[in-house]
Amino acid sequence: MAKFEIREEFYLDDSKFKILSGAVHYFRINPSQWEDTLFNLKAIGFNTVETYIPWNVHEPYEGKFDFHGINDVEKFLEIAKNLGLYVILRPSPYICAEWEFGGLPAWLLKDKEIKLRSSDTKFINKLRNYYEELLSRLIKYQITKDGPVLMMQVENEYGSYGNEKEYLKIIASIMRENGIDVPLFTSDGTWIEALESGSLIEENIFVAGNFGSKSKENCQILKKFISENGKEWPLMCMEYWDGWFNRWGEGVIRRDAIDLAEDVREMLKVGSINLYMFRGGTNFGFMNGCSARGNNDLPQVTSYDYDAVLTEWGNPTDKYYELQKVIKSLYPNIEQLDPRKRILKNLGSYKVDGAVSLMSIISEISEERHTIYTHSMEDLDCNYGYILYRTKIKNYHHDENLKIIDASDRCHIYIDEKFMAVQYKEEIGEEVKFSSKNESISVDILVENLGRVNYGHKLNSSTQRKGIKGGVMINNHFQSGWIQYPLPFSKEMISKIKFEENIVSKVETPMFYRFNVELENIYDTFIDCSKYGKGCIFVNGFNIGRYWSKGPIQYLYLPSGFLKKKNEIIIFETENILIEKLEFNDKPIFSNI
């Protein structure tokens, strides 16, 4: 049984050990690619893989746990072990990671009084229930049990959020009570306020830093903090940022490969490293995070390529080869191998063979929820995706005024199933005028949750509750009598869609389009979304993510692991764009922003 210790250096079986690690998120990569990705990590000369564990993935509804398929963290750990890699686990309640709500489950928001990331008993009790389920699965993978896991994180960048030490102590205590006996750590930005607020150094819990350049300067601050607190520990950057994430409507962020390689060389001269990210992967489904800038929420794109060492689809970049040179120059005896590469193909073009409007089948795929006034998505157990609000009003035969009060995030307004307006953040609350010839006027409002913030003060803000929270005013009074249709677009919900064979020639409401795709040979590919407006795409019932004409990405990456010989691909389009073709490509497509 191996032994890992943190003294003045890291020690593995009483020999000094340099941690050369890269971040790989199993929940962002099709399981069929886990082994190739981890092989490429080892091939560059690294000895460790690091991954977050997102709470919202593994407990999507309170008390209902999911550790299957892409969420099978145990299988991921087994692969790492079989390849001879060590593992750093970060099962903290909050992960950031540009992931929906920073990994916190949205169902927490049903309780209007709960205080997230705090010692609030309500929050801690829910965390304790999750940890009892999760940690029981992780115990056997600790290095103390002859597994690959070297250490685990308590909380993530808490010093950039709060300073309640009692909260941190409670998490550490729960982890120990549930059998975690490897070293624990915290990781924060390397400025004194963050380190003091987010660490438990007084409890002998290891302190790591997060940064992406100026290695000597950042390590000096980290070293000073550690020594001033009476410890003699090695220096480690737990997140050495080698790229960055992207938001809708902004340009793609890139970092020069040689610049990164030289910064990594500098870091390795003074300490250990975890590259964030080694492979970024994809924000499948509705799991993209959201930035908060002032009062604005800025949702992030489906691709989590991150300009990382491996591409979104797992192939080596220039950074890979430059880093491999640096590792070899610093550690000449280290074993390095040629990386594995994935083949990407253009799988052709396919005509639509079925279409149907959301409005015509809404009651067949979603359960009607009747309330007097509008409810939030969380109150209706619709944590992600969309929700449709429907009511009817009497026609007074004059121009009507509609105003949506306190809604998040993007609202499409339809009168008698015809598009009237779209409102997003700044416009929500503005009056929309409409009229109708019908004696009874149908009003539909489709609200999309664009993703909850993953970092900053808004985690505990009411703005992260989605849907229409305040109500809808029509002609200066709050309208009562609503039917609400939750649309999380689960695999089961998608399977209920019945398509019409007569293809429409004009669209005025959100539409589903079906494509039957038969393949002789299966490869990774990209779906070309450059002619679409906004929506998401389902491949054999699995939501591979959102697309949006705002860019910068105008594609969705489709791993071969989601494909089979006969495939049903469904596009949900909200911008009244008629879709007649599904086109694949062998490379990603970007807009010129």
UniProtKB/TrEMBL annotation:
Keywords: Glycosidase, Hydrolase. The keyword NADP does not apply. It comes from the Bacteria. Residues 510-566 form the Beta-galactosidase galactose-binding domain. Pfam families: BetaGal_ABD_1, BetaGal_gal-bd, Glyco_hydro_35. Belongs to the glycosyl hydrolase 35 family. PANTHER family: BETA-GALACTOSIDASE RELATED. This is Beta-galactosidase. It comes from Clostridium gallinarum.
